[in-house]
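Hypothesis: this fold can be encoded by more than one sequence.
Test: take the structure tokens below, design a sequence, compare later.
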């Protein structure tokens, strides 16, 4: 065998192995991106409680802010993340979102999704979403209207990044509107943080 033919054949083998393993690797990465280990929520509001209860049924540890998100991040939440890997979701006031973003950054986590849920200027709730692709699932879930909005968002955040054509088509939708809850405070934020594992995660601050 000529040396050139040998080297060419040797180069093909690792590529073939990688191709064979890629589906399993993609599934593993998708699972890591979608698994939520803990959910932070403001226990004063029904929407936040529903969001947390939905994720708790799927295995997340639900942690109320109890009026001090920073204390939660440096205490119970840090302890939970030391015991189990995964993402952290939240539905909180905007002030607690800011605290959670800063605390998450200290723990090498990045925001991969943010949603604002605003009824201050309307009798309906306006949802504005942004993220690294996960928001497409959230858009689709809100438009299907087969569950209360907070439950729909929580369920969508547990899914791997969307690939369905209908979800892709909704990616550029600016605002989704739903009825508001009776005790909605006027403005809430939903969010998802993931371990910073690579350059493809967004770096918004």
């Amino acid at each position: 065998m000529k040396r050139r033919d040998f080297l060419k054949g040797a180069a093909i083998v690792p590529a073939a192995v990688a191709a064979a393993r890629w589906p399993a690797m993609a599934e593993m990465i998708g699972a890591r991106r979608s698994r939520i280990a803990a959910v932070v929520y403001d226990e004063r509001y029904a929407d936040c409680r529903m969001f947390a209860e939905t994720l708790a049924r799927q295995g997340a540890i639900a942690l109320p802010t109890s009026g001090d998100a920073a204390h939660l991040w440096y205490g119970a939440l840090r302890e939970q993340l030391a015991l189990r890997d995964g993402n952290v979701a939240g539905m909180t006031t905007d002030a607690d979102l800011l605290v959670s973003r800063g605390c998450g950054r200290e723990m090498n986590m990045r925001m991969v999704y943010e949603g604002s849920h605003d009824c201050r200027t309307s009798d309906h709730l306006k949802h504005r979403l942004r993220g690294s692709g996960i928001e497409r699932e959230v858009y689709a879930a809100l438009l299907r209207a087969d569950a209360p909005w907070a439950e729909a968002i929580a369920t969508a955040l547990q899914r791997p990044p969307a690939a369905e054509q209908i979800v892709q088509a909704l990616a550029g939708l600016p605002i989704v509107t739903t009825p508001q809850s009776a005790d909605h405070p006027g403005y809430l934020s939903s969010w998802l943080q993931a371990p910073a594992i690579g350059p493809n995660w967004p770096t918004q601050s």
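Residues 3-34 form the longest helix (32 residues). Residues 36-195 form one domain.
Hypothesis status: open.
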